[in-house]
Amino acid sequence: MSVLTIGAFDGVHLGHQEIFRKMKQIALNLAIETRLITFSPYPRVFFDSNFPLINSLEENKKLIASFGIDHCDVFSFHDICDMPANDFVAMIFERFKPTCIVLGFDHRFGKDRAGSIDTYRAHINSNQAFQQCQLIEIDEFQENELKVSSTRIRKHLLSNELKEASQLLGYPFFHTSKVVKGQQLGSKLGFPTANFERIPNKIVLPTGVYHTQTHIQSEIFASITNIGYRPTVSGKDLSIETHILNFDKNLYGHEIQVDFLEFLRPERKFDHIDDLKLQIISDIDLVKKKLGKT
After folding, report:
1. What are phi and psi of 267, to 5 degrees?
2. Of 20, 26, 242, 259, which is the most buried if we count CB atoms within 10 A?
3. Is 42 within 8 Å of 201 (Cβ atoms)?
4. Domains of the chain, with CATH numbers?
5. Across all residues in the chain, what is the average pLDDT?
6. Does 143 participate in catalysis according to the annotation?
7. Using one digit for the tens of pLDDT, what is the confidence trace for 247-260?
8. Rounded to 5, what percent of the chain is helix, strand, coil?
9. Burial of 266 (0-12, 13-18, 19+ CB in 10 A)
10. Residues 137, 143, 145, 241: which is the catalytic one?
């Protein structure tokens, strides 16, 4: 027995969090657990391999757990993409026997997205064993009179509107990655960087320099992050690299989380390396001022 929800939940934004709050309230009253079902690959990625995601699956799972959901089950979308909606609902009830199902107002599923909350309602009404199951639909969630949606958040992120995106997410947009060895150009300049391992389909913000904060285990450090091609040193491939202030430990192979707080400046090509070094110093000084440090 559980309170159940189902969906892709890309971004785990304020609208999703409203679903979680309702689930936890019901679960607490009934002394049962909460369970979320999601999919891999993300359905839109299944149909468009270049579709940009706000979060990776692992990032989503950590967020879902942080909001108090007891269980997160990941279904292979390859296995169910052609499953008729009625068959999917029957499988859910047979496998999980939910006490309550909480769904968003725009929930669609099944082959050709033919299923809706009415499909669940019809199954409950036609099966005596499940007629005690409560079905709850959460209304559209709005922030500043505008609909909160993953689509809107993606548009904000790709337009470098970090503040607007964070307001809808309820947390700063972040990137979790294992630190990989780069060309060590930052170290040669006197500003060592942690280089990100690229995550398939994860949104990459527009090129430029960002004020960030970096989570390393239980500690949080001020940082600046560059997204771009390093034109001053004739770079060719896009890289994401973070300089962590007041930190000099080796992070290769470690997983870190970098929160993107504010866009500082566009990436630019400098005529001389020394000019680049002076700009990096200026970027660091700006971050320190924002933090109230000298």
Report:
1. -70, 140
2. 242
3. yes
4. 2-146 (3.40.50.620), 174-290 (2.40.30.30)
5. 93
6. no
7. 988 899 999 999 99
8. 35, 30, 35
9. exposed
10. 241
